[in-house]
Amino acid sequence: MPGFLKQYFFLAFALVFASTGSAPAWSAPDCSTMNTPILQSVNPALQSNLLTPWQEEIDSAARDNGFTDKRGTAFLVSMNQADGLVPVTRTYHPGTHDFFWTTNPQSAAAYGYQPTTLVFYASPDNASGCDVPVYRFNKNGMHRYAVTPADQAQLKADNWTADGVVFWARANPKFSIAIMPDTQMEVGVDGGGKDDKRFAQRTQWLADSRYTLNLQYVLHSGDVTNWGERDTPQLDMASEAIKRLEQVKLPYVLTVGNHDTRAVCAGGSACPGEKAWETVRQLPAFNRYFNARFSNGGVAGQFAAGDLSNVYSTFEAGGLKWLVMSLELWPRAEVLTWADGIIKSMPTRNVIIVTHSFLNSGGAIRADNGGYGVSSPATIYEKVIKYNPNVRFVFSGHEGNAARLVVPAGGNNAVAYLQAFHSATTNPVRIVEIDTDANTATSFIAAPYTNETWDQYWSLDSNMKYVR
Length: 468
What we know:
Blueprint: H1 3-6, H2 9-18, E1 36-43, E2 48-52, H3 55-65, E3 69-77, E4 86-93, E5 98-102, H4 105-109, E6 114-122, E7 132-139, E8 142-146, H5 149-157, E9 161-169, E10 174-180, H6 198-208, E11 215-220, H7 232-247, E12 252-254, E13 264-265, E14 269-270, H8 276-279, H9 284-290, E15 300-302, E16 311-317, E17 320-327, H10 333-345, E18 349-355, H11 377-385, E19 391-396, E20 402-409, E21 412-419, E22 429-435, E23 440-447, E24 452-461
Parallel strand pairs: 10-11, 11-12, 17-18, 18-19, 19-21
Antiparallel strand pairs: 1-2, 1-3, 4-5, 4-6, 7-8, 7-9, 10-22, 13-14, 15-16, 16-17, 20-21, 22-23, 23-24
């Protein structure tokens, strides 16, 4: 047994000794008792997976045993017996250094696994709010455990075989989403030219920080390029940057800004002599580059097949269900009707809306069509947000730097955030940390290229009333 396990033997033994066995099979699982975070770390060389409630063990395993890939809280369990919960035992194979979690340690012993006496309690099914299935994967005699769709997809891509769900736990209530602002100055048109690394450095930072932030979704508020429909090398740079998210299976959506359409010509200005309200709906190159990659393979729907102007996808995080909806710039009436219908059809999902223009630089809802569209952000609010109580967040860019506004939404409140910046020197990104237990949303702006955090944009909303 590795040394870092021995120091926890007596504490773990005490936990086991205090337990009198699993609860009767007929008891409904009491998942409210699952309040202990289980931390996860991986040994990159052995591909071994460590799960533990002790930060000290994570640190010791990193220092002494090669478990350097620290992944934070994977899920929550109970350390004590409760109705309907079953004991799950950590066993260890001294030959392969593999950890194997099981509800039947006697059976595991037949394959050379030794109980480490660390036991926690989880549910055998998803009744009564035990909302996170913990999947086991195997490869070459080793076993890994995954919760998020991104981690499961990554293991499958690395040729791990899924064994199925081992047990059910509670979700980590704290997670984050990231919102990239207008990146049009980062695709070869600014001082950095084709060597500009800011866009790719930002997405790599998000990929590298996904466990530290418990990052579950990445949005882009539009103007991915400056005039990419007229200059596809800009789309090449954007595409290369987005691959960083795809490589680690992070789901994302790219919202369409006016600079991502044929309404903008070389130099980044509206094309003279053309009908902007028509050309702003034309984005063949953008769709060719990104449509098949939308949401990184996640569940998705579109207003028009093959067109990224109006799309939605779903995900689960923090123990709750979420709907991400990306809307075209200053939308058409039929698009607003479609969006309202999708939101109403999913009343148990917390809704995140992203559209290129919503708040103006002063932090108010913009009331005009910007010279391109057929409606306004105010119309989006009236038709899609105002009467839907499950809308929680609205994100936009297009102008100014950053702003925030709380708006009524069907008896609840939604929070609208602006982030645009158009930085010539760094690469801002908004991070929103969501705590579904505390009903809070904390937001800050980071600029990883220059290693900055801009405290002036920090905010806390403490009465989010997430839909459950």
